[in-house]
Design a protein that fits this description.
Distance between the termini: 54 Å
CATH superfamily of the largest domain: Carboxypeptidase-like, regulatory domain
Number of helices: 2
Radius of gyration: 26 Å
Number of strands: 48
Strand content: over 45%
CATH architecture of the largest domain: Sandwich
Number of domains: 5
Oligomer: single chain
CATH topology of the largest domain: Immunoglobulin-like
CATH class of the largest domain: Mainly Beta
Structural class: mainly beta
Length: about 550
């Protein structure tokens, strides 16, 4: 129940959005971040027609590059032309966007990747055209379980991708149903999609709770009408195609609620604490709720059945170190009141980074692995990254929860050799950090004694393959996973050449494939499939040359 003094938790949608349909705001000229330069990029956005090409007018064009403090944006003119002037030398990418259109690509699998960078020299004028095609659309009607239209419900075209939690559904485009439950998801690249409908979690959090038995609530539903992702039916669309009659009925579920308070380790109210509910093994955003700024209470009105983490962060007093909590909670479709969350102090944990000739400017990251702790109210999210001093030492003032330690800022010829907490090696295993069981000092070893693999990737006819994906991964599956030390990947250049640097000594598999979704190389199932067609090799420090044949 929303009341004065309550604040809604903000978190990402459970379906990650990778393409956003936004209204076009006219711009009269390019607006790059101020930068002194003599280079320029210009081009034309067009679409093929039966008689040639036609301009795509008033479309948004975005320029990204490391030399710019922020992206530059302009609109195409009546002839579809655009330009960016006074650019410093550097690597850039150009992206076009207009409702109803998508980029025309030779390889449709790359529709969800950012376009490649290209180099621009000082004083150079580069022509970079943007061919487009008509976007596809998926249309249908969404009904409630009583046969009435499901009105104002978000409906998404979903594709499967990869994240730190594994294979994950990503919302490519999202719309809302109209007054008769109809929807039209437009501007889609060609491809395979699932269609998903789910109540808005923020609106659900604002529902007024009524006394009496809880009625079934609308549940996330995949076309043709299942709550299970695996039961969703794929809808395939071609460029410019409208696919209709995607009609389905939303499923329902009996939800519960969770409300309570937060106390510190001494049992005292912890005012101003932030609380988050996150499904075990799931992304953020499925459940939304409110916390009181003045009191130490929280209220989640709609909690679906399942196993959840209830996490909390707060300070006992202004300026005090934060305290944390992470408790498992099983929701079973009933109202739960007076649920108490008890925090504990974080752990001050230090260590050192060793290695002959250790580079300067390194940082140590303590990566969250089981859940994501909320930010404290009115404060920025925790970074969980600390600098390494000139003597190799680092210190975290307040750590909590399962953590995987990684080093940032290493040159590409260096690698993380290992991580130890006291005598225990934790290189590839998260260590649970809490006040009751704090690990010993962290010792991290980095090394420049690494291998480099290079060669040419060719097809079965011996022709070099541009844009192929080369994956190098250790044979020991126990070291696989997100942020693995023994997984390296690159794409081949225009000449089919590749080079993988910073490979630790050991036994590896290597394979080249035409394409992989971003992050797929960290998925155990994908690596097991790749291993069947991979070559094996023993990597030692130094350079190794190995030409590859791309596998289908």
């Amino acid at each position: 129940m929303a009341q004065l003094g309550l604040r809604a938790f903000a978190s990402a949608s459970i379906l990650f959005t990778v393409v956003a349909a936004s209204p076009q705001t006219p711009r009269d000229a390019a607006t790059p971040a101020p930068a002194a330069g003599t280079a320029s990029i210009h081009g034309r956005m067009t679409i093929a027609t039966a008689t040639g090409v036609a301009p795509v007018r008033r479309a948004r064009v975005t320029l990204e590059g490391a030399a710019l403090r922020e992206a530059a944006v302009t609109d195409t003119d009546t002839d579809g032309r655009f330009h960016f002037d006074r650019l410093p030398a550097g690597a850039y990418r150009v992206m076009g966007d207009k409702a109803g259109f998508t980029p025309a690509l030779r390889d449709l699998r790359r529709a969800f990747e950012k376009p490649p960078l290209f180099d621009v020299a000082a004083g150079q004028s580069v022509t970079h055209d943007l061919p487009m095609q008509r976007g596809a659309a998926i249309e249908g009607q969404l009904l409630r379980d009583n046969g009435e239209p499901a009105i104002n419900i978000p409906v998404s075209a979903v594709r499967m991708g990869y994240s730190d939690i594994g294979r994950t559904p990503y919302a490519v485009r999202q719309v809302r149903t109209n007054d008769v439950g109809r929807f039209r998801i437009h501007s889609l690249p060609p491809g395979d999609y699932l269609v998903d409908a789910a109540p808005d979690p923020i609106e659900a959090a604002n529902q007024i709770r009524t006394p009496g038995p809880r009625l079934p609530s609308l549940a996330r539903t995949y076309y043709p009408g299942s709550p299970r992702l695996d039961d969703g039916r794929v809808v395939t669309v071609a460029a410019g195609q409208d696919v209709g009659s995607i009609d389905f009925t939303m499923t329902t579920m009996t939800t519960g609620s969770l409300s309570g308070n937060v106390v510190n380790a001494q049992g005292q109210p912890l005012r101003g604490a932030s609380v988050r509910i996150q499904r075990v093994g799931g992304p953020l955003g499925e459940v939304r709720g409110f916390s009181s700024i003045e009191a130490n209470t929280f209220d989640y009105a709609i909690v679906p059945p399942g196993e959840f983490w209830v996490t909390a962060v707060g300070r006992a007093a202004p300026g005090a170190e934060p305290e944390f909590a992470a408790q498992r909670f099983r929701a079973e479709g009933v109202e739960v009141k007076n649920y108490q969350v008890t925090t504990q102090p974080g752990v001050t944990l230090g260590g050192r980074v060793d290695g002959p000739g250790r580079p300067a400017g390194l940082r140590v990251a303590a990566v969250e692995t089981a859940y994501q702790l909320p930010a404290m109210q009115g404060e920025s999210p925790f970074a969980w990254v600390e600098p390494v001093g000139s003597d190799g030492t680092f210190q975290f003032k307040s750590l909590f929860g399962p953590r995987l330690f990684r080093v940032q800022g290493l040159p590409d010829t260096w690698a993380l050799k290992g991580v130890w907490a006291g005598e225990q090696e934790i290189s590839d295993t998260p260590v649970d950090i809490n006040a009751a069981a704090a690990p010993g000092a962290i010792r991290i070893v980095v090394t420049s004694d690494t291998g480099a693999l290079s060669g040419v990737v060719r097809d079965a006819k011996g022709v070099p393959v541009a844009g192929a994906r080369v994956v190098v991964f250790g044979e020991d599956e126990r070291a696989w996973g997100p942020r693995s030390r023994v997984i390296k990947t690159v794409e081949t250049g225009a000449d089919g050449r590749y080079e993988v640097r910073g490979v630790l000594e050991g036994k590896y598999a290597i394979v080249a494939v035409p394409f992989l979704d971003d992050g797929a190389w960290f998925d155990t199932g994908v690596l097991q499939q790749l291993k069947r067609n991979a070559s094996t090799l023993a990597v030692t420090p130094g350079k190794h040359t190995l030409d590859l044949v791309v596998k289908p």
